[in-house]
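DM between two lab members

TW: hey, do you still have the Protein exported by TAT pathway entry open?
JB: yeah, one sec
JB: this one, 324 aa:
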Amino acid sequence: MTLQGLDYAGGIIGGGTVVASGYAFVCRYLSDGGSTLPNKKLTPSEAADLQANGVGIVSNWETTADMMLGGYQQGVVDAQRAWAQHKACGGPDGRPIYFSADFDATPAQQAQIDDYLRGAASVIGFAQVGIYGGYWPVSRALSNGTAAWAWQTQAWSGGNQDSRINLLQNNNAGYAYVGGVQCDLNQALTADFGQWNAAVPTTPPVTPPVTPPTGEPPVSNPNANASPQSVADSLDGILDGKPLDYRVVDMLRVRQLGDIASNTDPNAPGAPGPNAEGPNRSTSVFDQVKTLADVLTGRWEINGKFYDFGELLYLVAVKLGVGS
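TW: and the structure you got?
JB:
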């Protein structure tokens, strides 16, 4: 079932009224409306009430309609302010903020819009940057890789709708008046559209089970959502205990082509013999690649917990100091 939601700036609507009116979420501004729209900005108390009633909240930032034309630096400033208010209202990490291009943006203005979004990403991370706007700027931002989330309005869209969007503002349906407040109507087109509240989990989904090549029963990943520190603690002896082949460690340490020769060619100057033990043991490129392929497609059980390649790569990189 498609979830229906509201966005509004002219007042505060109680969470119970939102639910009783048949709506599941609200898109609320993090920016101030000044004297003309004193209730535009989401407040901590309002957010708490919405959450208490199970209403999803979507964070949005808009000061002026064409604020994105300020480019990269404006994106930096706005993202800093938006994130501060998002957190003040109880917004969790990992949830996006939609930045508004609330005007009929031309192709010539897209460079400034993209730069604005890049500036925002430099503060909160690309994965949390969303764009609100008509079909054209939204579509171009998605194609240009400057927005990870998209909320399209039917305004300035010429009947077009991008298939990649998360939210659609249904201007053609007119306004709704909920709790005496004029509201725009919205539809959620994806299960996760950036909402946050007490009822909807915002942690990443558990990695799907993978059937081991040995024909053993599939295993789940009970530790997929554990913190990096807790996972690191459980793997405290990963290198000393040698559960991970040293050939993989060798490849993670390789940073220059010259290192590859010394690690893979037993005849290279200074290379250890084929029977050497420890992390400098030489082996063929084929064997190293095969080992990496096994790691990429397999799962590893350590201390009764299962880890996929991404989790292991992070932990091994931390222990080896890669990138430091």
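TW: got it. Residues 4-188 form a domain with the TIM Barrel fold (CATH 3.20.20.80). Residues 198-203, 210-284 have pLDDT under 50 and may be disordered.
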